[in-house]
Structure formats: C-alpha cells, structure tokens
Amino acid sequence: MRRRDFLELLTLGTAALALPRPARAAVPAASQLAIGQLEHGGRWNPRPTALRRLQWELAQRTSIETAPEAVPVRAGRPGLHRLPFLYLAGDGAFPPFTEPERAALRRHLQHGGFLLVDSADGSDGGGFDASARRELAALLPASPLLRVAREHVLYKSFYLLDHQGGRLLVKPWLEAQLLDGRLAVLYSQNDLGGAWARGALGEWEYACTPGGEAQRETAFRLGVNVAMYALCTDYKDDAVHLPFILRRRS
C-alpha cells in the first residue's frame, strides 16, 4: 500500500472515531409507572421518601418499569389520566376537596384509575381517618368501604399474603370501595408509607411495631401486590393460575 493511500485510510478512520455515537434510546416516560401523590389542604406528604422507595422496590422485584420519583398532583388539574395509580396520604385531619376536585377524581376512578389511601397518623375515628372516610363517602356514595376478604386476588397478585404490614398495625385488614366488582379505592390505616420510608444514607426512617422487620417486608410485599393489581386488576383470578397458587400455599 502506498504511503498516500495509508494516510487517507488513517484519516478516514480517525474521523469515524470522532463522530458522535448514536445514543441509547431513552425509555419513554409513558412506559414507566409513576405513582401520583394527591395533594390536599393538610399534611399531604408525611413520608416524603416512601413512594420513591416503593417504586425502586417494584423495579427490583418485578418487571414493572418505574419512574425515579412519584408525581405530586391536584385532583382537579390536567394530567390526572396519565397516572393510573394514585396515592392519598396524610397525618392529621384535612379540609374537604372541592366539588370539581371530587368530580375529576370520581371520573378518573370510573375510567379505570386506582387510589390507595394510607393513614400515616395511626388514627381510628379521628384525625386523618375521619377526613378520609368523609371524602371517600362523598367520592363514591354508592360504594361504601368494605373489608377486603382474605381470599381476594389482591393478596395473590404477586406475593401470597395472609396478613398486613405497615409502620403500625391499627387494623388487621384493608378496606375498599368497588366499582363494577373492581377495587377502585383501597384504604390502609397502618401507615404503609412509614414502613417504606428510607433515608438518603440507607437507614429506615421509622421502626415497625409490633412486628419489626418482618412487618416492614410485608408492607413492601403488599405495596408490590397493590401496584400489580392497579395495573392488571384480577388477571390472577383466572383458573389457569389455580394449581400453581395451591402448590405454593401447601
């Protein structure tokens, strides 16, 4: 090869190396699960790190692609339809939602949306509990809160669960409001967010009582099941899953 030809090839090769490489395609935001945290007039974000950690756990434990952060959202603002999984938490009483906010949230649930309500203050009959029950009764007046049966598909949507988790164990059951047989609203009084919350240095922010770390793990497993149910509803009730589920229970 002549020296001139060699130098031309060398120049072309160097130029090719200098060209910017095509970037990896970013995962579209629409393909990621971002939990929408509903704002209200009280302490609406009592566990600021909880949903971030839950979304991280979801990504590690399942095939769900999650956003790095939850999305704060007002019930009456645009964009609610982009968030199939909503989360309403609080510490203490909060003022009523406006009628337009209730109407927007009701419409969201009627079109397939899901709402997890989580009491952070351990209240039962007062505080957040009283405000949440008032709002849920106004939100879906034809669908009263009912205990979720242990046999419900929620408890086998990913993990097989037979007890509750959370920072506290105020109630050994969950309550729900149904729309066309589907759990549209799920209510926990056990402060799930308090069990999920983890600080920047990796420390758990709150102790779980009375069950300790096993109770925290159950809270995460319940959170995973809730997310799977919010996205897939009752697919695990199909009879094809029954033999496998019975083998795991035995």
TrEMBL record:
Residues covered by the DUF4159 domain: 35-231
Keywords annotated in UniProt: Signal
Coiled-coil residues are none
Q: Which InterPro entries match?
A: DUF4159
Point out the signal peptide segment.
1-25
Membrane-traversing stretches: none
Q: Does the keyword Signal feature in the UniProt annotation?
A: yes
Kindly indicate whether the keyword Signal belongs to this entry: yes
Q: What is this protein called?
A: DUF4159 domain-containing protein
Q: Which organism is it from?
A: Anaeromyxobacter diazotrophicus
